[in-house]
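User: I'm putting together notes for a lab meeting next week and I want to include a structural view of one of the chains we've been expressing. I don't have a solved structure, so I'd like a prediction I can at least talk through. The sequence is below, exactly as it appears in our construct file.
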Amino acid sequence: MNKRRRIYEGKAKVLYEGPEPGTLIQHFKDDATAFNAKKHALIEGKGVLNNRISEYIFTKLGEISVPTHFIKRLNMREQLIREVEIVPLEVVVRNVAAGSLSTRLGLEEGSQLPRSIIEFYYKKDELNDPMVSEEHITAFGWATPQEIDEIMQLALRINDFLVGLFLGIGIRLIDFKVEFGRLYDNDQVRLVLADEISPDCCRLWDIQSGDKLDKDRFRRDLGGVLEAYQEVARRLGVLTETPRPRGAGPVLVASNTPINGPVTPVNGKPN
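Assistant: Thanks for the context. Below is the predicted structure for the 271-residue chain, given as structure tokens.
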């Protein structure tokens, strides 16, 4: 393959120029980060698992007419995606109290929320992605009121689907983070789901045991990160075509600095 032009490198993924105008290649790395990259490790095989899990979920969402940037998986680590203008917001949907929500509101971790709650965070690494309100979003022009409404509707629709999907394989969806982008098609602009959906950006607990099957195993030094991701992939049935990736476990490395370029999801929320 000819050398591709790198457009952007984030904490967990790299974007390359795509084969056709309006497309990009999204490469999944093995890097694991937490606390805005203050904690960083390499976990061999994580990128392969996230690629397959995200492909599966995005494909299923497309089948229920949720618009996404996903086109197809190219290989073990890469996807062909549509180029979009990322809305500078991380959208967190919470079903169960955990992480920062428990800390902020003094809620017992694991307690069911009265209803699903949507939170917005401004994508700005140097500010540690602060939580913002709809007033902030519209005042600073990050999204219009109409876009906020559409984002919330899509987020809740995605949540309804994911809750059922994971429930069917014995997993409780605690919360998750998604991002959206503007897809320009001639004179038309529409919002689509972007980034990824994987254990990197979801909290997933085994229904029976309560075991964490997500990046909290890395954040909280619980060990077994790769094994947890493998278990999610196994239950979803996406490891049937390829051997299970193997690794010696996390290897601490120095933090990398992203290069400038189009925004792409790189943070590890929900926190």
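A couple of points you could mention at the meeting. The two ends are 38 Å apart (CA to CA). The first strand starts at residue 6 and ends at 9.

User: Perfect, that's what I needed.
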